[in-house]
Recover the amino acids of this structure.
């Protein structure tokens, strides 16, 4: 498997083939990651209406302190 040579340690800028290969690899990894995250996962939110109701209620009361929420993550 031959490809562009890595840049020399003292060079200011990598060669054009090195930069093009880097862009191709990063773009491919990013696209595959995005496809995995959005295509193969299913997100289920339970109690969203309750959370948004509490947030709206706090907004109308003019609270100045933050709201701490806790989430359980199930990886099955």
């Amino acid at each position: 498997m031959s490809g562009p040579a890595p840049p020399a340690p003292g060079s200011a800028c990598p060669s054009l083939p090195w930069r093009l290969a880097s862009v191709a690899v990063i773009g491919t990894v990013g696209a595959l990651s995005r496809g995995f995250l959005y295509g193969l996962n299913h997100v289920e939110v339970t109690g969203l209406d309750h959370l948004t109701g509490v947030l709206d209620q706090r907004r109308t009361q003019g609270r100045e302190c933050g709201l701490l929420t806790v989430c359980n993550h199930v990886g099955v």
Summary: The mean pLDDT is 83.
